[in-house]
Amino acid sequence: MTRIGILLAIAAAGLATPAFTASALAAPDTTTVTGPGGVTLRSVTVDLPQSDREFPGADAAAVNNNCLTCHSAGMVLRQPPFRREKWAEIVNKMIQTYKAPIDAGDIPAIIDYLAQR
Amino acid sequence: MDQGHRVPMIGRRGFIAGAAALGALQHPTGALGALVRNVDEAVFTTAFPQKGRMILQRTRPPLLETPFEVFDQGVFTPNDRFFVRWHWAGIPEQVDVATFTLKVHGHVDRPLTLGLGELLAMPRLEYAAVNQCSGNSRGLFSPRVAGAQWRHGAMGNARWVGVPLKAVLDRAGVKAGAVAIRARGLDEPVVPDAPAFGKSLAIDHARDGEVMIAFQMNGEQLPLLNGFPLRLVVPGWYSTYWVKMLSDIEVLAAADDQYWTKTAYRIPDTPHASVTPGETGYAQVPINRMVPRSFITNLADGARVAAGKPLALRGLAFGGDQGVARVEVSADGGTTWGRAQLERDEGRYSFRQWRFTAPGPAAGSVRLMARCTNTAGEVQPLVANWNPNGFMRNVVETTTLTAA
């Protein structure tokens, strides 16, 4: 099963609000609001792509387990090389500022991975 | 659906559970190994709704950059090529115009809940304005810095139509002693207790009559990823203030003490927001007005041109929070400069196109530069600024060609 498949399955199973599904899946976006000058706004429904990209490599388990909750891997993989201290600072910011739920025990493996990339 | 929007199915707990579940999976090798690539290589995508071909910086939450050639196609950036930048992945995938509301509350006489119909009926404002990410061109910082590695495509210019924020604030009746407004959109963090994105503006700025609650961009409703149905437009200021999917305006009686204003998006309080790498102990201020920039758009780095033949150049400039007074162009690495012809003026906050014909270059390497001076006399520096967040680049850029 792909990541997307799993996530959709989990999300669908966990989706407790029936009102959600009804209005989200049934009606096409025909609702409009019109103002003076013929300005019309039309309801919008989109599907935002998800990413099934993982951090590559045999030592990537710690980053894959901890760094994909809030954002997909692309931007992290596009970072320039940084020294360990800088990566430690970034990981610490994810935890302290953005409340990343990261196991303290995983931190060294995360920093090792990022610094060696 | 009483709130007029639907959050993505992969919401807070859903995604965490998903990520945790994945942690238990084995990580296949093979195909994934092939993902290691040069970080500077652009990856294009057409997978995003209401968007054409974009440079993919990140899928979730989306960071999409405008491919540079789009800037050569005109002074306005098409909506489907306009850059996209979200901080948190809790982005609604559905917005219902009939039930969407904008709340105005806090230090006001009459808290408001405005529907889109009510906003559309208010007096309107229209102007062109550049929307530029604080970190546009961050990928060119040297030494390099952390954050989205944008080249120059985290900017765009559009004609915005909306309601002056002042009119909405006046309707709510701002009480004496108000110091700021804080704007919030529908986007939400995907973990508990994390700081939701919001930005504040000083009350006088919010009431300057120019800051706009926009509902149209280039004559159409905004693409969802650019903030449908409402976006704050703060002309002349960096994009971080242009809150997308604007749904909540709180009038504050004390300075904003939340993370995104108090701690994030701060710049050194120094000329060009520049410091020496490693420097500490300098004062910082919230990022604010933009500074002049200019770009050659019809020739890219590495292009080959005919030696001895006049070189027709074309580009864009903007003055930051002022109009463009002049653009000068050099075809010899900055030794001599000639004045470019400015095209139609679309307003103080807009991109301005320019043209220049450089004398035929001698065979060899040719270094082209464009330099904008704004109507307040502020000119682009010849030396790049540096700060740890990669904000506010506006050095004179160099395009290097080969003449043969």
TrEMBL record, chain A:
Transmembrane segments: none annotated. Keywords: Signal. It comes from the Bacteria. Residues 1-26 form the signal peptide. One of its GO terms (molecular function) is electron transfer activity. InterPro entries: Cyt_c-like_dom_sf. This is Sulfite dehydrogenase (Cytochrome) subunit SorB. It comes from Nitrospirillum amazonense.
UniProtKB/TrEMBL annotation, chain B:
Gene3D superfamilies: 2.60.40.650, Oxidoreductase, molybdopterin-binding domain. Pfam families: Mo-co_dimer (PF03404), Oxidored_molyb (PF00174). Residues 90-260 form the Oxidoreductase molybdopterin-binding domain. GO terms for biological process: sulfur compound metabolic process. SUPFAM superfamilies: E set domains, Oxidoreductase molybdopterin-binding domain. This is DMSO/TMAO reductase YedYZ molybdopterin-dependent catalytic subunit. GO terms for molecular function: heme binding; molybdenum ion binding; molybdopterin cofactor binding; sulfite oxidase activity. Signal peptide: none annotated. Keywords: Metal-binding, Molybdenum, Oxidoreductase. It comes from the Bacteria. Residues 287-395 form the Moybdenum cofactor oxidoreductase dimerisation domain. Its cofactor is Mo-molybdopterin.
